[in-house]
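User: These chains co-purify. Model them together.
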Amino acid sequence: MQRLFLLLALWATAPLAQTLTKAPTLVKSVEPEFPAEAMDAGAGASVVMDIEIGVDGTVTAAKVVQSAGPAFDAAALAAARQFVFTPAEVDGQPAPVRIQFTSNFTVKTQVVEAPLVQDAGVPVVNFKGRLKASGTREPIAAASVTVAGVEAVSDDQGRFELTDVPFGSVSVTVSAAGFEPFTETEEVKPGERTEVTYSLKRTGVFETVVRGQKDRREVTQVRLTQSEFRMVAGSNNDAFKVVQNLPGVARSPFGGGLLVVRGSKAWDSRVYVDEIQIPQLFHFAGVVSTFNSANLEAIAFQPGNFGVDYGRSIGGLITADAKTPSKSGVHGFVDVNVFDVSAMVEAPVTDTWSVSGSARYGLAQWVLPAAIRAFAPPGSVGFGLAPEYWDYQVRAERKVANSKNRLFLAAFGSSDRWAFLTPNRLLDPDIEGNTVSAGSSTLYNRLVFGLDQRLGERLTFISRNSVGLDVNTQSSTVQEIFFRNTQVPVQLRERFKLDVPEAKLVFNAGLDALVTPTSFDAQRPPVFSPNQLPDPYVTRRLIAATERSVYVEPGLFLDATWTPLESLQVRGGLRMDGELAVMKKVWLNPRLAVRYTPLDVLTVKAGAAMYQQPPDYRTGQLSPVFGDPSLRPEGAWHFMGGAELRLFKLLEVDLQGYYKALFNQARLSLASGEGSDISIPGAKTRYTSDGYGRAYGGEVLVRVRPTKYFLGWVSYSLSRFERDAYGGAQYAPGPLDQPHNLIVVGSVQLPWNVNVGARFRYASGPLVTPIASSLFDAQANLYVPIPALPWSRRLPDFLQLDVRVDKRFVFENWSLVAYLDVQNATNRQNPEALFYNFNYSESAFVYSIPILPTVGVRGEW
Amino acid sequence: MRTATTLLALTLTACTNAKFSPETLVKDLRVLSIQAEPPEVGPGELSRLSILKSDIPGQVTSLIWVGCEPDPQDLGRSACNDASILLRPTEIVDYPPGLQLLGFGLVAQYKSTTTVFDVLPADSLIRRTGSVGQVMGLVIGEEVDPLATGDKLRGYFARIEAKETPVVVALTRVLVSEKPPAQRNKNPGIVDLFVDGARHPKGGRIPVKAGGQAALTVEVPADVRQTYIEPLPSGDVERIENVVGAWYSSGGRFSRERFDATVRDATTFIAPGSAEFPDDPVPERRTGIIWLVVRDDRGGQSFDRYPFFVCDEALPNPQVTAVTPPTTPDGQVVVTGSNLSATLDIVVGDVAVGRGAYNQAQDTFVGDAPALPSGSYPVKVRGRNCRDADTNLLYVVP
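Assistant: Joint model of the two components:
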């Protein structure tokens, strides 16, 4: 009698860049009453409606957008207002959405071919089944199943039931948004219940991205979901590497893992997963990140002007949300490529608990030595310990369906170890044992407890707590030189969110504390100043230090988001940070951001904020022996203004201009040949807080709204980064000043489950420090380069095209993806650095990676 | 991560098209060694500085020596340790604290103050391990007036700074410590050079065929590797020096640039004129120099130079009929015979007649008397055609 179709996907009712992460599912369907006056006519009809669904899944409004006459319209609306859906989620949070819904009225002819065994007059379920997606076995909800004219809609577990299906050979038709139409013939026998399971093929790999309503409070944020970061060429399915393709991030030399945000050094930018800081983002040489992206739901990047809920950093911010483990059966994958092998499995344990676990082990320890043997000159470089890395993530989460409350326990960690061997320049390569080594070992682990708890209609408590173990060891050249840093960081984040709708205010306040007991063991030569010629005698006079410190960094924040008008949002807050044990300093940072949406398609925004962080104590900058405990906190002012445009429901454009002023930057002291620092004792001769700098520029991000068949964006950054120069200039280019950085990313879903993607990058050439002259060290028998003004020569521009092809083979219960990811597909020679002869009188380019194909296969179930 | 990226860059040095001349090939003004004798001194004691540099025919060069006081507190205040001084060498004649001009010429002397360690406690480790006095040798491509002062002296450095005159700057260090003399470092010595297994006559030239190979072996004193104590934070460690030799030449190639001088392995010298290196033809006068520097890894070094001659095999064999010792202390050895213009060296015992040359006017071969103890020594003639011959003559040193 009734035939329902969810015809189209949903569309945005809110600002740009928000993503429907869970579609609403019809859980209570009310059959519209066929108008009596129309029954006689024997004609059917269809009524198309817009239905607004509230955060609790109930229908808050419905209106007809395509009428079938007053009687049909009234019947359809009456039924629709009684529908109940599962709440939709936008960016992981329940949110109101609007959908388009068609109610079909058909006249059903009663056909009875055989007497039913069941008692007459009592409906009997004699046909039931389950719908799942081919390959992933994900249940398909809200699908329409028609069997011999009898119809049903699948629930959120993909289940459906039909009553009183006529006996005999019947035709089954299944329609579901995002899947190919499905037909089958089944035999229905008297006295038996026919049970079926159907696997439907998807029509595209990209999820339909729907922008839902949610508080949009950040002014610089770009958010990417799984469907967007999985298909970017040159990124190896890695969400964090995809961030390197966004505005504000400089190109990393040699395609490595540096995250240089608006020119800032790596220590200035922080990465959090579930609000827990990740101490090391990438494995060896930036091949892949240390947190497997398969565990992520979405990732957000803010190159600046982030809110007060995050601190202790003066650069950019990456926050990622871990995925809730599957609640719909056992799923997982195994992935093997030339760099690593990884696997993941996730499963529900009870109705509320589900678990996941994943691990990765690097293959570089075999691949890289082979590559070096094949391509590097004999004896030029080797490994004492080939790069060996692994990481793991496990998670147990309790979450009741349709509830905002959840708690989880998670553990994750990573390890990297390697040691390079190079010939000792002072000896002949043939001499046994004539090598010097540089080794590194980095280990981190985190045990996390998280809780989201609604404490009432207005108040939400969010808690993220972790304890970790980090061990970082560096050794070089000779055995006696080493650096070992062991930390047990304890992070406590407790925050409350309070809605005060009558005042149109949302308050966000909390504690964000980091306590880091640290054991620092080092044996190394005194720190040399940048303008000082290395002295082998002083080098040999090693200094040993063992320091036990506890860095105590309390953080308190309070902000308010005021929405006096639907189109205006003002967010302001204060954050207090400090380091109480070593620096014994506290600082207060104000931050303000404004968003104004005068038109549905236009939002203008602006922000001003102050940021401060302790100097990099992991490397000993606050050490009384190797650094200076009296250094001031490094600081930055961020100013930005911009606009967001949505054009033709197809394009999203984000324009920003920014200015960042750096102050109190820790930097090595200059040696003075004029004796001026004779009276400056100890630490001041090693580090000062006198460094300063600035970054400014404009950024554009044009995103095509992802569809089933295409995703892509164009990112352009016009930026300058300048630091205080040792050569006497007030400002000089910083090491990763890249005025132009253009990235075009696109991925197309083709027939036969083939996906093709490409990434093109144009960037200004890298900066190098020219060598003005050289000095012959007659004792060491080598030439010491005498640098000119730092970073004052720019090498030719960088151009690279990466290509990725995925072919998915779908089987009933699993799928196999074979992929080829080719970096630098045109094998262009991009200068990356300069390589000098023995006395620096001649130079040649060192080029970036040549064509680098990565082949892999991935089995998913 | 920065380290990893740097090392990756190192790995990717394979991704360069660079083909540079070998470090051993000396075609322009170069300093190859500076020897401080002794390399370690006590406060206020003298060390004699000498330099090994390449000589470019037709180019005038002069030497300026600059020294700095040791920096026992590691304050980085030594001007000689400040790279900016090298970018603005006129600052040298502003005489920053602790800097002084040591002199001009091939040799100079360095001496620290006697009070250099007075700023340190009496039990300071640095008194025992020492602190370095840095010395810069500036070789400039013009004639320098040793008596220059004021603006005239500043003018030399101004032209260096403006790159109007070529300059090569070399750095060495004299270690100043309160160690007993017996524990101080000594320069490694060079005893002998062997060419193709035969002892090379002192003062002689190495005959090589065009593009031909010669096996060079170096003999150093048996006790060249000194034992010393290195204080580490974990305690004193006894170590033995490494002694490394390095080859240079004005033409030709070496099979290796550096070698363990305590191992008698031969280095192959490939003479100019080989088909393998067409950019390295036989020199116009068929002569060249091989330089050898031997260094220990505590700052000691010694050097020697060996002229080589690329033979002309078409020349006749020289015939020697008589070798007449000098009759006066300043006199010369006179060699008579035939085809003497084809003589490369006259070797008396294991020593070549010094600065030997053909005297066309008298059709003789003359040279300085070899420094030999009293006795009778066989005389051998070495031809410019790479053929040696015994003369069956004896040279008698009274």
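Residues 40 and 184 of chain B are 6 Å apart (CA to CA).
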